[in-house]
């Protein structure tokens, strides 16, 4: 009986095209010749969603296919010398679960090679990619991320990118290697300790960062409002903003034809008398939650039919284009 690795390449490729991700990843671990063949020619699986979660001693990959099938693969350190791999496929009848132990294998190496196969051959835009770093893993241990992304013939296209990190170096493993024109929504949060500020000074200097154009949601960070003026919609949290920052934001907004909404949260209350001196007299009203706020209205220079509305309370400011 002819073994699978002895089939002609064309036949083997046809077989791979009919298999799902779980089967391909399992088959890849059976022998060296299939491992190499799949690495070279694995067909595009048109993944819609990828979620990657890293722990200190495990990595979990989750995939959603066009038919809404969900597949989870977990890679756990096993006694420091081997890798325990668990597969789950939903829907299944019944739900498919299996596991295997790969001896003399590092969990991070096994996971990174599987992920590389899938991302290397991903040709369509991902609807959603989430990467969650749930431990203080140093950048050198995660160097497989840039290696995988650099191996692609073109930057990875992602519509919605969701990053949970513990340090700036983890962002620098991802953001330089994505297609900024494809990103509609970017979310960045610091994982773990609430209120701890995430450093983003190096991130804000990236060329990819400067060319992002759509929406960003970012938690407490040490950046400056100037780091976010290329986005159309901004939700950002700072420890402090100055009135000088707010005046600069107002003037930039008034001259911009692209900016639509900036929502700022701050820890240190903004000095209202200084802001009134800079913005002029305000109107008082009640927001949708029933709280009192100050409001200013300015005609946009970029389009006289548009109005910049600024809502203020000491720890929240909302800049909104209205027409």
From TrEMBL:
InterPro entries, alphabetized: DUF38/FTH_CAE_spp, F-box-like_dom_sf, F-box_dom
Domain F-box: 1-50
Protein species of origin: Caenorhabditis remanei (Caenorhabditis vulgaris)
SMART domains: FBOX
Protein name: F-box domain-containing protein
């Amino acid at each position: 009986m002819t073994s699978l690795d002895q089939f002609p390449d064309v036949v083997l490729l046809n077989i791979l095209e009919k298999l799902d991700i779980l089967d391909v990843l399992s088959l890849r671990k059976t022998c060296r010749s299939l491992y190499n063949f799949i690495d070279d020619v694995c067909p595009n699986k048109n993944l819609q969603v990828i979620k990657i979660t890293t722990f200190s001693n495990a990595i979990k990959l989750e995939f959603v296919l066009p038919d809404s099938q969900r597949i989870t693969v977990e890679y756990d350190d096993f006694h420091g010398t081997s890798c325990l791999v668990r597969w789950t496929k939903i829907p299944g009848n019944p739900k498919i679960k299996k596991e295997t132990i790969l001896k003399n294998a590092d969990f991070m190496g096994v996971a990174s090679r599987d992920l590389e196969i899938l991302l290397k051959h991903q040709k369509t835009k991902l609807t959603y990619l989430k990467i969650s770093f749930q431990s203080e893993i140093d950048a050198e241990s995660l160097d497989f991320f840039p290696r995988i992304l650099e191996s692609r013939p073109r930057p990875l296209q992602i519509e919605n990118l969701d990053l949970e990190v513990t340090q700036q170096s983890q962002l620098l493993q991802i953001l330089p290697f994505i297609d900024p024109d494809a990103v509609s929504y970017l979310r960045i949060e610091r994982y773990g300790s609430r209120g701890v500020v995430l450093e983003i000074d190096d991130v804000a200097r990236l060329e990819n960062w400067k060319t992002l154009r759509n929406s960003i949601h970012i938690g407490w960070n040490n950046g400056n409002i100037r780091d976010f003026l290329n986005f159309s919609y901004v939700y950002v949290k700072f420890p402090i903003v100055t009135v000088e920052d707010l005046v600069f934001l107002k003037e930039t907004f008034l001259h911009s034809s692209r900016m639509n909404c900036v929502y700022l949260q701050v820890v240190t209350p903004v000095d209202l008398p200084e802001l009134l001196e800079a913005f002029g007299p305000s109107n008082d009203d009640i927001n949708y939650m029933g709280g009192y706020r100050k409001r200013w209205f300015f005609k946009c220079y970029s389009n006289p039919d548009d109005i910049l509305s600024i809502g203020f309370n000491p720890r929240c400011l909302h800049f909104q284009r209205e027409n």
